[in-house]
Design goal:
single chain, alpha/beta, Rossmann fold, Hypothetical Protein, Haloacid Dehalogenase-like Hydrolase, Chain: A, domain 2, six-stranded mixed sheet, 9 helices, 25% strand, globular
Amino acid sequence: MIVMDLDGTLLKSDKNISDYSVSILEKCKNKGIKIVIATARSEKSAERCIKLINPNIMIINGGSLAIKNNGKKIYERTFSIETSDGILNEFKDNKNIGIITIETKENYYVSYENVAWHSDYMHGIYYDFSKPLSQETYKITAEIYDNKVAKNIGNKFSECKMVEFSGENWYGFYHKEANKLFAIEAIAKEEKIELENIVAFGDDYNDIEMVKKCGMGIAMENGIDEIKNVAKNICGNNNEDGVAKWIEENIL
């Protein structure tokens, strides 16, 4: 099985996937190798990529949900309503908080209107987050201008963990059991594949655990030092089809 992150890993910086990368992944599937994407994106924001790759399994929302391409859920973790609304209450009237987004089972809610984001994120529904949302959530992400503020908010909730996105003032808040590795372990059990027979590619903080624990953990050349330090190998950067080239040279 091959597991790969999307942004900064399989996707180029312009958010596109090359025809070459798509063809290499198709060759893997033809050889009976399971292809899994593992992304912080939701299924909807990854929809364009999913249509191109047609993965066997998707790990989405940072490991909060793992589903097969037939719709079967393999792994799922959500915040309780109390924690979701509690985190939102911490954001309220805080000058260090910028944009907020929340992924629930039903919708993707955002704190902005008429912002020209990438088309993958244009499905967001505006919500006034000064009011409780009162829904279970897969993830809460926020633009936070002070790292200490982000850490303090994450530490206030027992079922919460905070994940930093490198190079940005963005932070993700997830259920403490929502991570890519836990989802991979559930998939491995479902598919009867040992972790030692899984290759995992990643570039950022939320990829560290899966790159460290899978049989062959590969860090991107453009990845953070923390992931390179635990990886068994380093491939080329995302703008040069690093994932596909490594697969072609080492697996196909």
